């Protein structure tokens, strides 16, 4: 655990390297990785390939670049890949496969469990016809939206892809969350995938780095694309050392993040928020539109960083303790209490014994000292929310 005074719920990418990780980085043996002579990068690649059961691995500075180089290594210009509508490679990477790789995405709706229905995949598969792009690849993501793809579905989908001559790629940015949740080995988690991109800088806590895994020919091709995409780093062992440290020290502890996420989800649900079932380290829940502005202000008074929206995502991670999760739940509880009292006291909020007065219990602990003296913008927002 590496707790911070700021409670940052925005992502699991916000973690800072622990003291042990920094020491490993400082001690790393280095070389020029474009020439292939950084011993720490080479070691990380060998360890990752061995653990996941692939012939080869290649370190990338980011998951976006790793996925893109992977897609570009599977597909040629004018080829197509089948991908979930909610998938990161399709939706959250500026359409890089199309923009930079000349690969046509064929997005298909994800089902509530994150899978893509096999009949929908079959319907999207293009026949060999001069009018169509050549369907070459199926790309899945695990976890997706915090959900672990059902293992039986992964078997069926990858078999289906093989039976139709498609290659298979897995965006495993949070694959270790799935591995820990399911209690399976790395090799079991990637069975059926020709390639996989595994991020080291999300739940695993490295400051940067993703490994792309596949056979030797695939990884050699991806290495060419990595250079073209500007990802040939020189003494990258500084960062690879953090990745090695993460693989050795930060995998099993992901269970703590899952427990914290479950606690957070349960706490919010008990307060009446509509929370999606929590499986790993991401909590999705609904916040009514009128509550967004005052909640944002109230969270800020407690050093809680969050991206709020009608469907809000909170992430748990290495730098977030169980005590901090409880502070978050308590803040939401107090918000609802304050709002309830504000509603009684409209149009002005009754502070200090007036009708609708906000009790000390609801506001104690919120700097700057509430009540009296609720910040005017919070009063306005509360009045808006209570209206
Ligand atoms: C599922 C998934 N894939 C890929 C990425 C891209 O990783 P990076 O931010 O390292 O480019 C992310 C980043 O959040 C992600 O969530």
Describe this entry's structure for a reader.
The protein has helices at 19-26, 39-52, 63-74, 88-91, 96-101, 118-124, 151-163, 175-182, 186-189, 216-228, 237-249, 254-270, 289-301, 322-344, 360-363, 376-386; strands spanning 7-8, 56-60, 79-84, 104-108, 134-141, 167-172, 195-199, 210-214, 282-286, 304-305, 311-315. It is built from 16 helices and 11 strands. It has 2 domains: 16-249, Aspartate Aminotransferase, domain 2; 254-386, Alpha-Beta Complex (Aspartate Aminotransferase, domain 1). Strands 2-8-7-6-5-3-4 form a 7-stranded mixed β-sheet, with helices on both faces. 47% of the residues are buried. The chain is globular. The chain binds pyridoxal-5'-phosphate. Pyridoxal-5'-phosphate is lined by residues 62-64, 67, 88, 141, 171, 173, 199, 201, 210.
């Amino acid at each position: 655990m590496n707790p911070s005074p700021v409670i940052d719920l925005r992502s699991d990418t916000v973690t800072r390297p622990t003291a042990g990780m920094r020491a490993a980085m400082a001690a790393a043996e280095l070389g020029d990785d474009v020439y292939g002579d950084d011993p720490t990068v080479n070691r990380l690649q060998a360890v990752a390939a061995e653990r996941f059961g692939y012939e080869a691995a290649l370190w990338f500075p980011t998951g976006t670049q790793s996925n893109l180089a992977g897609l570009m290594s599977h597909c040629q210009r004018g080829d197509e890949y089948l991908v979930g509508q909610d998938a990161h490679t399709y939706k959250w990477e500026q359409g890089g496969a199309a923009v930079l790789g000349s690969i046509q995405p064929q997005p298909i709706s994800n089902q509530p469990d994150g899978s893509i229905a096999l009949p929908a995949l079959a319907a999207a598969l293009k026949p060999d016809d001069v009018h169509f792009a050549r369907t070459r690849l199926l790309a899945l993501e695990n976890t997706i939206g915090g959900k672990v793809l059902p293992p039986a579905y992964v078997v069926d989908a990858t078999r289906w892809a093989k039976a139709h001559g498609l290659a298979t790629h897995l965006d495993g940015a949070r694959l270790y969350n799935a591995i820990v949740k399911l209690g399976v080995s790395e090799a079991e988690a990637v069975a059926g995938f020709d390639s996989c991109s595994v991020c080291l800088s999300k739940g695993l806590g490295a400051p940067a780095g993703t490994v792309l895994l596949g056979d030797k020919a695939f990884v050699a091709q991806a290495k060419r694309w990595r250079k073209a995409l500007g990802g040939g780093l020189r003494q990258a062992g500084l960062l690879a050392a953090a990745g090695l440290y993460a693989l050795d020290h930060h995998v099993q502890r992901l269970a703590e993040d899952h427990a914290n996420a479950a606690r957070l989800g349960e706490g919010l649900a008990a307060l009446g928020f509509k929370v999606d079932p929590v499986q790993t380290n991401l909590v999705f829940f609904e916040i009514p539109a009128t509550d967004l502005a005052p909640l944002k202000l109230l969270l800020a008074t407690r050093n809680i960083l969050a991206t709020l929206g009608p469907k809000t995502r909170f992430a748990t991670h290495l730098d977030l303790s169980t005590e901090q999760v409880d502070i978050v739940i308590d803040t939401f509880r107090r918000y609802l209490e304050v709002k309830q009292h504000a509603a009684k006291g409209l149009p002005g909020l009754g502070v200090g014994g007036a009708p609708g007065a906000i009790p000390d219990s609801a506001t104690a602990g919120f700097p700057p000292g509430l009540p009296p003296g609720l910040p005017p913008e919070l009063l306005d927002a509360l009045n808006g929310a209570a209206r």
